[in-house]
Amino acid sequence: MYQLRFLCVESFPTSSSIVSLDLPNSLRFLKWHWYPLKSLPSKFSAQNLVVLDMSSYKVGAQLWNEDQSLVNLKRIRLCCHYLTEVPNLSRCLNIECINLGGCERLVEITYLNLSRCYKIKNLPEMPCNLEFLDLSWTRIEELPSSVWSHEKISHLDIRNCGHLKSLPSNSCKLKLSNSFSLEGCKSLCEFWELPRDTTVLEFNSTTIKELRNTSIESVVGLTAIKLTYCKSLVSLPTNIWKLKSLESLDLSCCSNFQHLPEISEAMEHLEFLKLSSTMVKEVPLSIGNLVALRKLDLGYCNYLEVVHDYLFRLTSLQELDLSSTKIKSLPASIKQAAHLSSLFLNDCKSLESLPEVPPLLQCLEAHGCTSLKTVSSSSTAIIQGWEEYIFYRGLYEKHRFSNCPKLDENARSNIMGDAQLRIMRMATASKFKEDKIEETSYDSNEKVAITCSGNEIPKWFSHKSEGCSIKIKLPRDWFSTDFLGFAPSIVVGHKRYRRNTDIGCKYNFKTSNGESHEVYHPLHYGSRRCELTFVDEDSHEVFVWWYNNVFEEVVKGAQSPTALYKLVTEVNVHFTVINYSDYGPLPEVEKCGICLLYGKDAEMIKQRAL
Question: What angle do CA 222, 149, 182 make, to 5 degrees?
């Protein structure tokens, strides 16, 4: 006789009238969405069930009675709104997966493998074959010692257990395959041991005060430690530097953290160190032992006043964030940081001067440095690194000195003089790459953008105009093989604070035969809008930029861009400010300028700058 082993019911439209069911004892797979009764039939023997998948608004306190023996059950999924007690799984020796998502009335549970059962506070012992355990977003206060000493659990999720106060003190035998996260366990303040095979530890938003020496030493394969928003953390153990595989250490927003321990030995793999928004007052002299460090984040360290020159001896350092610190100056040795590509100094209100910066510095953000007076020219470094820059893979340069009202005339001159060199260097490098790479495979989009407080178009611009438009009569053979493009410049004025605005640039080219063609290019900083930001009354900003592909636009009706532009005799350029927010009236473009760039002028410009 045929025995039914598989039953799948996706819906049951007449479920309200069903009072009883006869299920065959041969069933091995039972999947029933909107199961119509309060429990499984009393005559049904579930000993052959391997998979039970059920959702219901009818199931009450219990799904089956204590006499049921589900010895073959491997997977159970229940989404039963009114279920208040999990069925007894003590005899389910083959259980592999327990999913109780959506059982919103559960207040006590026997075995659990699911998150967001918000009312669950207590957990008993776990099945010996359990491998995946998810307790995230529950109200558990203690983790059973049987979980901590479980050797088969390879995935344990206890994130956002806001009432969890501590981890078990017995020996940890968990063999977690990747990360161990305590993120959001805001009541957790201590632990004694950690899973040894973990590669990533996350303690974000916990109340731990320290990492114990013994617990850290045991996790020898750690590659990343994340401790963000641990507001009770005040220190790190000295043996943290014994973790030789460590690549990233993040202490961002640990608002009471004050001191890094002395770095007693070389760390050959640590590339990222984040100390932003901490109480760190200085970087230890031993930071030189972080020989692989690429990114150091000290932004919003409000007690940091001095940066010593040994910091820039880190030969691998590429990005340094010192925003919103109390530093007054940077050491001249910063010029020696050959690989430094990004330097962030935004809102350093005490910063008074900047020295010459490294030749390959791609991004310098110094917005809101309201005490900044002097900025040294980096022309020597730019020129010395000229040939090396040709093979540099950076796609854009961004140098920002907006809302720096105390910049003296010499500082503004140095910034805009360097801007000319940076633009010529990028333009010639781009031209070199075009010549060396087939046009079909060359698809870069290099750009340079520089801004600083001021109200004059730079002196090196040959064409200037009042207002937001400029018309230029182009010389004969202006679009030669030596042509590198246009460098536009504008002065923008505003009387009120505004963010999230952009600059549009529209070129209208007119040919000798009376045709007209338009090309539109907005000013972007990398992948972001330029985000004009004005704070002071009657503030003015000067913008200078360059794009490499303005003249590569394909124009309808033209055989090629080159054929079109050789006929062009006049160009009218119009600048607009585009609104992305509602912070008052738009800024106004008060002055504008255009400079035609040619490769033959590069040597003369370099000689003039020296």
Answer: 45
Angstrom distance (rounded) from CA 479 to CA 465: 22
CA 7 to CA 403: how far, in whole Å? 70
Q: How many residues does the chain have?
A: 610
**H or E segment and range at residue 550:** none
Neighbours of 263 (CB within 10 A): 19
Q: How far apart are CA 131 and CA 39, in angstroms?
A: 28
Pairwise CA distance, residues 302 & 327, whole Å: 9
Cα 257 from chain centroid? Answer: 23
Please report how the helices 409-436 and 602-609 are oriented relative to each other, as an axis angle in degrees rounded to 10. 150
Residue with tokens 């009312």: 119
Q: What pTM, to 2 d.p., does this model score?
A: 0.80
Q: What is the DSSP letter of 241?
A: G
> Token digits for 570?
């006049």
Please check whether residue 228 is in contact with residue 206, taking contact to mean a CB–CB distance below 8 angstroms.
no
What are the tens digits of pLDDT across the range 238-251? Answer: 889 999 999 999 99
Residue 17's pLDDT band (cuts 50, 70, 90) = low
**Looking at the predicted structure, is the pLDDT value of residue 530 above 50?**
no
293-317 per-position pLDDT tens digit: 999 999 999 999 999 888 898 989 9
The distance in angstroms from the start CA to the end CA of the chain is: 99
* Residues 6 or more apart in contact with residue 178 via CB below 8 angstroms: 198, 199, 200
Angstrom distance (rounded) from CA 339 to CA 464: 37
Judged on CB neighbours under 10 Å (0-12, 13-18, 19+), 316 is middle
Residues ≥6 apart with Cβ < 8 Å to 438:
none
Evaluate if residue 553 carries a pLDDT over 60.
no
More confident residue, 392 or 512: 512
pLDDT in tens, 82-96: 777 776 666 776 777
Give the CA angle between residues 357, 363, 366 to the nearest 5°.
75
Which phi and psi (to 5°) does residue 529 adopt?
A: -70, 160
In this predicted structure, what is the pLDDT of residue 302?
A: 94
Q: What pLDDT score does 435 carry?
A: 62
- Residues 116, 81 contacting (CB under 8 angstroms): no
Q: Average pLDDT in the 391-414 region?
A: 86
The first and second tokens of residue 491, run together, are 């002065």
- pLDDT of res. 56: 82
CA distance 425 to 359: 11
Of 458, 473, 502, 475, residue with least CA distance to 605: 458
Beta partners for residue 296, in sequence order: 273, 320
The pair of three-digit structure tokens given for residue 303, joined into one six-digit string: 């007690």
